Amino acid sequence: MNAIDKIKEIIPSLNDDQIEAITTTDGPLLIIAGPGTGKTLTLVARTLYLLISEKAQPDEIILTTFTEKAAYELRDRISQLARKINYQGQLHLIKMGTIHSLCNEYIMKFLSYTPLKRGYSVLEELTQIFFIYENFDEVMIKRDGKFLGKWAKKWRAIKEVVPYLNKITEEMIDISKLEDSNDEFLMALAGCYKAYCQKLFETNRVDFAHLLKIFYELLCNEKVYRKIKSKIRYIMVDEYQDTNYIQEQILLKLASPENNICVVGDEDQSLYRFRGATVRNILEFPKHFKNCKQIKLTINYRSHKKIIEKYNKFITSIDWNGFRYPKEIKPDPSAEFPEYPAVFCIWGRDEKDEAKRVVQLIKFLKNKKIIEDWSDVSILLKSVKSEHSSHYINALKDDNIPYFSPRAKKYFENTEVKLLIACYSIIFGFYGDILKEYPHREYIEESIKLLPKNINQALKDYLRRKVRQIENLKTGSLDLTILDYFYQLLAYQPFSAFLKDKNKAYNLSIFSKLLSVFMDYYDISLVTAKNKEFIKNYLFGSFLNFLMQTGIDEYEDPYNPIPKGFVQIMTIHQAKGLEFPVVLVGSLHKKFAVQKQVDRDLLPFSKRGTFETEEQMTKFDRLRHYYVAFSRAQKLLVLTTPEKPQDWFSTIWEGLDQYPYVEKETLQVQKFQSKPQFVPKKSYSLSNINVYETCPQQYLFYKEYEFQPSRSAQVLFGSLVHHTIEDIHRAVLDRKSFTTQDIENWFEQNYKALLLSGLRPISKTQKEVALKQVINYFNQNQDILERISETEVEVSVEKEDYIITGKIDLLMSKDGKFEILDFKTQPKQEKNPELIDKYFKQLCLYAYILKERYNKPVEKIYIYWTSEEKRKDALMEMKYSEKDIEAAWNYFDEVVKKIKSENFRVNIPPDTEKVCKECDFRFYCSQNGIIKFKTKELEEV
């Protein structure tokens, strides 16, 4: 049986266009995939076809998509189908993820060729803003009393300049052209960009746009390019309509010269212009090649035919003038479509009346059992901020219908958050007259008013002690960080009770991250006599003020994005890639604006110039936006508005029946079943499993809820030794000649990089000891260096319902057999058999994974104790057998089962001196009887 027949056997539903897309493998291919046409299935099957037809090995395939969630879905579906056809290859070697994660992976591998150092941090949306704030005076030039001559207020300037900085990088704009532009704003912007980039690399940070730029620069290095390219045969790119210029350049460079590149997307569903994406990439893709094949997937397996008919009419209601691939989406020819009103509208007298009718419809669907669960209904809006969503939320609340809208920017409205902010207001004295001019005065006062009925005497006494402590601080410092107060508060009711509620615990975790960002970007460590006023003024007056104005999203569980039992309220962007039995689309009366100023200013300087006119941008984007919304509906599409919709909805709106005046008789006999939502397999790293073994509560708080530690738990000493030994290994692999002086230079560079990452410095004596360990290793192990095969090897193994990941410090090869070496910076632990056994099980698992991956046995496994002066004491060989591997598997399997079943009870309390002493939750655990740990510090709390 040939490869395509094997695939058709396990996916008999494949249509002719899908089969052609799967089997067209060589040369450039553009797949235009309309909504609901099975593009994910096609990509999965195409990947398997490449593998089972032996056109490529797993590590020769790149598969990128727009979101991590989509990447997880591809990974798990490929794995599922591979098992069905008994494919035995190493699927985890497929380079699969977002383009940014792919770039990050290669940057870490070829770090020495970049301006970054080990341990660099990647700025996301919020931290990029605070990075500019931290370096504001050096980055933002003031002219005529305004920043860059354009913005009067600091926070406004920061928010407005970010899209400009990102666009310059993403469009690969030559800064000298801006400097020579004779436009005062653009010349100032050029200076701002140069200063911003300099600060990024000085502080070992990188934003998302620079991840792309640095990787592109790696590809321009001939030596690095050859190494990367040698392992790439086929490239597949999902959601190509949402890529930007530099991403296009990266992908084309990776594909050249064979050009075995397949891009999949739909220009009608391009939504991310505001993030720098351009539909131009997909529209002009064929122009890059002489022989680009095009395949259109147009059979929709998602929606009722009446819904498809309506959104087809909507998207073709304007003249696209060559900015769209002509196509018509068709319903599944093998499906039966029952006769009922599948598309209708709601038109309220005002917002309150509209929302009331929406709720009446939802209740009707649920009461008549047309839908099975509240989560079968999604309300899609242009924005879910209060002015767009509050009338729906209030109407649902009035009828006790649960709803879920984590991106409504209502984080600060949660009781647990209000109480925390109230406590911080009391501790740092941010109340009373100081609030007179404060924009969020009412919020602070209301939060403080909540305290008396929510806190007990113990917490009142704690607050008094802390207030007195700060008031009496005249010189020196307290041994307390801003986050320390947070963890002390968690020991008291009601906060300790909130930790037992998953949603509230996640909200508390978000607060810990925000405080950590404040400490990092405002350069605050301990509370001192000198900075206590600064903390009060800037924590509230600047930091929280900005966050409250912009709003913060609540927690979303990546493993349960559409929780059962809740009506979903989401943005149209959020709904991309999702589908629901019932979709209500609102915001139809709102104006639709497209951000054009950044493009207007910068695109004339880009390598390609402008594309659409400004009028076309608005006209095209609003249709694409709502086309995505309408095409999410499986069984029922409802357009809802409190006013006359905008004129450009006329082709879909006109002639619609109005609820409740629809054929309820045919509707109420329907039974809408939702498709099971995809839930990605969860990954568990061996280091995280070790945390669970040490203390299940620590695992729950730090790994599940992701609370941010108050002080870095990571010890600089161990990282410094590890990183410098890795530098030695990489130099050997790169065949570089080096001396002891080079090692000392790497050591100093690593030390500086670790300090920049927030780790606490070590003493001069400790530093000398760390360097001695590295030099000792180098001098005594030339035979090991000669056998190096790989360093820092990422490994993973997939089980039925989870994935285990780990990292091998050093892989050596001798006589066609492998040896594994793991470094430990502590002295040899001969008198600690439990710890040795833990390390042994980990190494056994690594040995199993490597044998499966390379089909080569691992002959020896070692631990190297770098604290030991002599090699004979440092190098510890551990004998293992197949039985040991089986025992290790069973052990880790049992631990993961406990984690998956949410068994976080502490049955045997950990060593309080070694484990609890530095743990932020020692106050909580002590107060709640989890541990018996008495110190002066705990008594004072």
From TrEMBL:
Transmembrane segments in this chain: where? none
Residue ranges constituting the UvrD-like helicase ATP-binding domain according to the UniProt record: 12-304
Question: Which Pfam families does this entry report, sorted A to Z?
Answer: PDDEXK_1 (PF12705), UvrD-helicase (PF00580), UvrD_C (PF13361)
Q: What is its EC number?
A: 5.6.2.4
Enzyme category, top tier: isomerase
Q: Which domain of life is it from?
A: Bacteria
Task: Give the catalytic activity.
Answer: Couples ATP hydrolysis with the unwinding of duplex DNA by translocating in the 3'-5' direction; ATP + H2O = ADP + phosphate + H(+)
What keywords are assigned to this protein?
ATP-binding, DNA damage, DNA repair, DNA-binding, Exonuclease, Helicase, Hydrolase, Isomerase, Nuclease, Nucleotide-binding
Q: Name one GO biological process term.
A: recombinational repair
Residues reported in the UniProt entry to bind ATP: A33, G34, P35, G36, T37, G38, K39, T40
The entry assigns this protein to a family as follows:
Belongs to the helicase family. UvrD subfamily.
User: What is the name listed in the Swiss-Prot or TrEMBL entry for this protein?
Assistant: DNA 3'-5' helicase
